[in-house]
Amino acid sequence: MVVMEQEREHPVPPYEPQKLAAPEPRQKAMITINDVDFCYGANQVLYDVNLAIPPRAVTAFIGPSGCGKTTLLRCFNRMNDLIDGAHISAGSIELEGRNINEPDIDVVELRRRVGMVFQKSNPFPKSIYENVAYGLRVLGATKKSQVNEAVEKSLRAAALWDEVKDRLDSSAYGLSGGQQQRLCIARALAVEPEVVLMDEPCSALDPIATAKVEELIYQLRENFTIVIVTHNMQQAGRCSNYTAFFYLGRLIEFGATSKIFSNPSERQTEDYITGRFG
Amino acid sequence: MSIRARQRIAQTSSFWIFRLATYAILAAATYIFLDIGIRGGQTLFTNHAPFVNVPFFTQRPQTLFVFEYQGQKYTLSDSEFRVWKTQHSGEVEASTVAYSAGGVWPCIVGTALLVIGSMIFALTVGICSAIYLSEYSHNSRFIRLIRIAILNLAGVPSIVFGLFGFGLFVIFLHWNVSLLSGWFTLGLMILPAIITASEESLRAVPNGLREGSLALGATKWQTVRKNVLPYALPGILTSSILGISRVAGETAPIMFTAAYALRDEMPWQVQRWTDFVFQGVMALPYHIYVVSSKIPQNEYTERMQYGAACILLLLVFVIALASILLREKARKRLSW
Lengths: 278, 336
Description:
The complex is a heterodimer of chains A (278) and B (336). Chain A has 278 residues and is of the alpha/beta class. Chain A has helices spanning 69-76, 107-113, 128-138, 144-157, 161-164, 177-190, 207-220, 233-239, 257-262, 267-273, and strands at residues 31-40, 43-53, 58-62, 86-95, 98-99, 114-117, 195-199, 225-229, 242-247, 250-256. The radius of gyration of chain A is 19 Å and the shape is globular. Chain B is mainly alpha-helical and 336 residues long. Chain B has helices at 3-44, 54-58, 78-87, 105-136, 141-154, 158-172, 179-203, 207-215, 220-249, 252-255, 284-293, 299-333, and strands at residues 61-69, 72-77, 95-102. A 3-stranded antiparallel sheet of chain B has the order 2-1-3. In chain B, strand 1 (61-69) and strand 2 form a beta hairpin. In chain B, helix 4 packs antiparallel against helix 9, helix 7 (179-203) packs across helix 9 (220-249) and helix 9 runs antiparallel to helix 12 (299-333). The longest helix of chain B is centred in the first third of the chain and has 42 residues, at 3-44. Chain A binds chain B through residues 77, 79, 82, 84, 108-109, 111-112, 115-116, 118, 120, 122-127, 134-135, 137-139, 170-173, 184, 187-188, 191, and chain B through 138-139, 206, 208-219, 222, 226-227, 231, 334-336.
C-alpha cells in the first residue's frame, strides 16, 4: 500500500546537496539518520536523508503525499521489516548511537523503546483496561497491582483517565474516534518507550478531538522524544519544536519550527508552506 | 413491439427465472428432509410411551426373522427368535432379512469416534499450517506451489482418498482396517478445506491489530496467539462445522480403511487399551450403504435404511449445533 503512494505527481527536481542550517546542537541526538536510501524492491523512495532528531522535543515531518515521510518514520522501529522487499539500501539509522539495523539488535526490545501510534486508530477488540495492559503483559508483567498502576499512569498521561475510569472493563470500541486514538497513545506509553512515533495521528479526527491530541502531544514532549508525521501544516506549527520538510524522497529542509514557518531557507519549503503546491 | 415492451418482458422473465431457481433449492431441501424425516421417523419413534424407539438407538444390528406360526405373523430379531424357539415347539419356516432388526448403536458410536478423531487431527494440522501460510510465510515460489497443492487436494474425489488410505495406512503401515487409518484418511480429506477456510479467517483479522501489537514490543508468536488467532477462531469453527458433516457422511474414504459391515464388540470392548485405535468400527454411512446395496430390498430393509439416514442427519445436526454454541461462546469472550 505504501508503494502505491509513491506514484510521482511532480517532476523530480534537480538535486543539489543542501547546506542545511543545522539546529543548535543543544543535546546529543536521539535518532541519527546518516545518508539513508530506502527501497521498496527496486523502487527507491528515500534519497540520501541526513537528519538528527533531538531528544525530548516534538519533531514534525511534513511534505506532500508519497514524499517518504511515513516510510522514514517506520524505519525507526523497523516496522518496514514487515513489508516484503522493503529495505534500507544505503546509510544507517542510529538510536542513541547504536545502529538499529545491525543483526544483533533485538527488534522486540527496539520496538519497546520506540513506540508507535498509527494513522488509523487501532485499539484491540478488548476492554479499555486490557488494551493498555497488553504491552505490559507481553513484556511479562503479571503482578495485578503493578499493572493497575501502570494502566492508570498511562491513561492519565494520555489525558483519558477521567473519561474512562468508570468503564475500564467495557469495550474499547465503544469509545469515540478521538478517545480511541488517545487510548492508542496511552497503550504506547504504557511500556515506557523513549521515543513515540506518530503517523498522522489526527487525520481521522474532528477539530475538537484533534485539539485534544495536539495538546497531549505538546505535554508529552517533556518526557518523550516525539516524531510526528502530519499533512496538516497548522498542526506542525502548533505542536512541534522542529520541522523537517520532505519532497519526493529527499529532505529539503530541517530546522526549528518557528524558523521553517516564518523564514524558510528553501524556495520549495516556502511554496509548500504557503500552499502554492502540495 | 416497442423497445419498452421488450424490456418489460425481459425484466419480468429474468426476475422469474432467478426467483424460481432460488425456490428450487427450497423445494429440494424440503423434499429430502421430509422424506427422510417421515420415513425415518416411523423407525425412530413409536406411538406408545416413551415414544422413542429405544432399542433402535441402543441395540446392535441383528438379522430379522419373519415367519408365520399358528396363523399369526411374527417379525422377530435374532435374539428374540432364539428365546421364542425355547418357548414354542415345532418347526417354523422363517425367512431372514440381514441387519434389519435391532438398532444402530455401534454405528452411532463408530461415526462419533471417526468424527472426533479426524477433526482433532485435521483442525490441529490445518490451523497450524493456516497460521504458517497467513502469518509467517512470504510470497515465494515454494509457497505458491503449496497453495496449488492445497487447491488440487481439495478437488480429489473421496474414493481416491479411500484408496490412498488403504494403500498407505492399511497395507503399508500395517494398521489394518482401524480407527487410526480412518482418522488419517478422513482428516487428510478435509484438511484442504480447513486450511483454506482458516487462512481466510486469519486474513480477515485487520492488519492494524498485528502492527499495533508488534509495535508494542510483542513477538510474532505473542501477536498471533493473543491478537490474531482469538479473533479468527469463530470463523475457523464455522469452517470446521462444514468439515464435520463431510466427515460424518462420507462412505468412500472409510469403506476400505475403517468400517466394518458388522462387528459384535463395541469399541470399548478391547483387551488392551492400545488396541483401541487399531480396531475397525461400524459407521452410519457405511451401514446405510451396506443395507441398501448388499441386501435385496423390502419393507424391512427400508425401515433400517431410513432410520439410519435419519439418525445420521440428527447426529450431524447435533454436532454442528455444538460447534455453533462453541463459536458463540468464543465470540462472546471477545468484546468487539
